[in-house]
Amino acid sequence: MQSEAVYQHFRSEEAPLIAEFSDLINQAESEYRPILTNFLDPRERVIIAALLPDNGLVKFKSWGGFKDAERQRGIFYPTYFKPRQDDFELTLLQLRYPIKFAQLKHSQILGTILGSGLQRQVIGDIITDDQQWQVVVDQKIAQYLINQVDRIGRTKVKFETTLLSQVLSPAIDWQRAEISVLSWRLDTVLAMVFHFSRKKAKELLAADKVQLNWSRLNRPDTQLKLQDVLSVRGYGRVKLVSTTGVSKRGRIHLQVDILKK
Q1: Buried residues in 39-54 as b, exposed as e (16+ CB within 10 A)
Q2: Distance between CA 84 and CA 260 in Å, rounded?
Q3: Is pLDDT at 186 greater than 90 in this prediction?
Q4: How far apart are CA 21 and CA 175, in angstroms?
Q5: For residue range 26-48, what is the model confidence (pLDDT) as tens digits?
Q6: Which of 12, 49, 180, 195 is the most buried if burial means most Cβ atoms within 10 Å?
Q7: Rg (CA), the chain
Q8: CA 250 → CA 1, 47, 181, 253, distances in Å?
Q9: Domain 90-166 has CATH 3.30.70.330
Q10: How far apart are the C-alpha atoms of 139 and 161, rounded to whole Å?
Q11: Which contiguous run of DSSP H or E holds residue 24?
């Protein structure tokens, strides 16, 4: 699908991403070589899939260090190239800390990493099995993290490299639910899923605590679509999976997957 046609299928705020990925595809084709990206979220990979040329001259593959990783690096490549896992240039870091005496949270770990001066785009998934923690990173910044981060909050920590084959099995508990809403408005869906008022939803949006498809937004009247993913700081995530019908009163029945904090 040509990039011009793709624009109408995505939100206007995603136009810069469409342009960026189109440029990378053109670069891989014109230079006839593989192009490695930073870490991509699932929405970005959806956009890329829509942009890939029908002529098959440029292909795309992504990998995040383990099966079903949320954040993955991608490679645009010509047909002669066969990507291997090593080509994605990933490093797995194990976080050592006094497990018996301290508790860590995803937000603490990510906040500390970003506070060290790194950008989110060089950090992959932060994984836990409810006790141990690991972080997948761009191999170029692994040593920097090892050298720079020795505390998370008040807890003394140490990052160590470990084999990707030793990656943890993430403890993730999505739950399927069915909700009924009057419209596809963002504030309406948030209020129904997390059982608070639309006023509360608007306050969270105004405080930059809501992300739609991994991008912050503050418009409560944003119209949602199936497969959209909402993240609400302090509450969790919800993915709009499917519609199951409309009631006689016009209420929309939605199946959603919910991951609560």
Answers
A1: bbbbbbbbbbeebbee
A2: 35
A3: yes
A4: 33
A5: 999 999 999 999 999 998 998 99
A6: 180
A7: 20
A8: 35, 32, 9, 9
A9: yes
A10: 10
A11: helix 15-31
In the sheet with 252-260, reading across from the earlier edge strand, the strands are 175-181, 252-260, 236-246, 229-232, 210-212, 215-216
Q: Do domains 90-166 and 175-260 have the same CATH topology?
A: no
DSSP state of 219: -
Q: Are the CB atoms for 178 and 192 separated by under 8 Å?
A: no
Highest-confidence range of 6-15, 172-181, 223-232, by mean pLDDT?
223-232
Question: Two tokens at 16?
Answer: 């810069």
**DSSP 3-state assignment of 81?**
coil
**How many angstroms separate the CA atoms of 151 and 101, rounded?**
14
C-alpha closest to that of 69 among 152, 157, 137, 10: 137
Would the pTM of this model clear 0.85, i.e. be above it?
A: no
Per-residue pLDDT of 114-168, as tens digits, reads 999 999 999 999 999 888 999 999 999 999 999 999 999 999 999 999 999 999 9
User: Does the domain at residues 3-88 carry the CATH identifier 3.50.50.60?
Assistant: no
Over residues 197-204, mean pLDDT: 94
Residues in the chain: 261
Burial 229-249 (b: 16+ CB within 10 A, else e): bbbbeebbbbbbeeeeeeeee
| Residue tagged 């109408």 (tokens) | 8
Six-digit token string for 20? 């960026």
| Domain boundaries along the sequence of the chain | 3-88, 90-166, 175-260
Distance separating alpha carbons of residues 222 and 230, to the nearest angstrom: 12
Instruction: Report how far residue 235's alpha carbon sits from residue 195's, in angstroms, rounded to the nearest whole number.
Output: 10
Helix (H, G, I), strand (E, B), or coil: what is residue 146?
Answer: helix
